[in-house]
Design a protein that fits this description.
elongated, mainly alpha, 2 domains, Serine Threonine Protein Phosphatase 5, Tetratricopeptide repeat, single chain
Length: about 270
C-alpha cells in the first residue's frame, strides 16, 4: 500500500494490484486492497466502483454477509444516481437471497421496476424468494412469468408435482390426537419412540397413583397419579404440535431445494442460450 494521501495514479495502481489478486483467487487480500482504494478515492462513483469490486471478492470467498455490507455502503453513496442504484439493487437481490433475507430480496426486486431489463434478470430469485417466504400464490405467479420468459412450458407442472409431494400433518390435528391418546400425535408426526415412551410413562404413573389412593396414600396418589401425569399429558400435546410443525418445515425445505435446483438450472440454461 502506498502513502497516506496518494495521487490518482497511485489509486489506479492499487486497484490494478487488487484486480490481479482477484484473478489469482486471493479474494480476502483483494478485498483489503479494494477497501484501501475506497479510503483513498475522492469521488462517490470511484468509491462505489471499488466497493462493488470488494463485494465481489467477498462473494467469491463465500462471505456473503460482508459482501452485503459492502453493497449497502455503495447504495448509500449512490443515492440520487438511479443507474448506479439499480445496478446495486440487482447485485443485492442475490446477496439477500443467499443470506436468507427473502423479504428484503423481494423489496429490492420491486425497486427495480423502473429498470425492467434488470428486473427481468432477477425474476428467478424473486420467484424463489416468494417460495422461501411461504407465499405459494405469489411464487406460482412469478414462476409462470419465469417459465414463459425461458420458454420452459413444463417447469410449472414439474414444480406443481413437487408441491403435491408435501404431505403434512397439521399441528392442531397432532395435538388433538395426543389429547385423545397420549403419545399418538408425536408418533404420527414421526417420533414413535417418544410417543410410546410418553404413553407408557403416563400409564405407569397413573397406575401407581391409583395404587397409592387405594392404599390410603392420598398425598402420593395426588402427586403420582394426577399432578405428574397431567404435566406429562399437557407437555405431550404441546410436543406433538411442535414435532408436526418441524416435520412439515423439514419436508417443505427438502422439496424447496429440489425446486430451487430446477429453477436455477433453467435460468443458467436460458443465459447460456442467450
Amino acid at each position: 500500500m502506498s502513502g497516506y494521501f496518494p495521487a490518482d495514479a497511485q489509486i489506479a495502481d492499487d486497484s490494478s494490484y487488487a484486480a490481479g489478486l482477484y484473478h489469482e483467487q486471493k479474494f480476502a487480500q483483494a478485498a483489503l486492497e479494494y477497501e484501501w482504494a475506497v479510503f483513498q478515492a475522492q469521488g462517490a462513483l470511484e468509491k462505489i466502483t471499488y466497493l462493488t469490486a470488494k463485494a465481489e471478492c467477498q462473494k467469491q470467498s463465500g462471505d456473503f454477509n460482508k459482501a452485503l455490507h459492502s453493497v449497502n455502503r455503495a447504495v448509500t453513496l449512490a443515492k440520487g444516481n438511479d443507474s448506479a442504484t439499480a445496478q446495486l439493487y440487482q447485485k443485492r437481490i442475490f446477496l439477500h437471497y443467499v443470506t436468507q433475507e427473502y423479504a428484503m430480496a423481494i423489496q429490492d426486486y420491486y425497486r427495480l421496476r423502473k429498470k425492467p431489463e434488470l428486473q427481468k434478470e432477477q425474476l428467478h430469485l424473486y420467484a424463489l424468494s416468494r417460495m422461501r417466504n411461504y407465499e405459494d400464490s405469489a411464487f406460482f405467479a412469478a414462476l409462470e412469468q419465469f417459465a414463459a420468459m425461458t420458454h420452459n412450458d413444463s417447469l410449472v407442472l414439474q414444480v406443481q408435482e413437487q408441491f403435491k409431494s408435501i404431505k403434512t400433518l397439521s399441528p392442531r390435528k397432532a395435538s388433538i390426537i395426543s389429547a385423545i391418546i397420549p403419545g399418538l400425535g408425536a408418533a404420527a408426526a414421526g417420533k414413535p419412540l417418544q410417543g410410546i415412551t410418553s404413553l407408557l410413562t403416563i400409564g405407569a404413573f397413573g397406575y401407581y397413583g391409583y395404587y397409592a389412593f387405594t392404599n390410603g396414600m392420598i398425598g402420593t396418589g395426588i402427586f403420582s397419579g394426577v399432578m405428574f401425569p397431567l404435566r406429562l399429558y399437557l407437555g405431550g400435546i404441546h410436543y406433538a404440535a411442535v414435532t408436526a410443525r418441524e416435520k412439515n418445515l423439514k419436508k417443505r425445505n427438502e422439496v424447496y431445494k429440489i425446486i430451487e435446483r430446477k429453477v436455477l438450472f433453467t435460468h443458467l440454461k436460458h443465459q447460456t442460450n442467450h
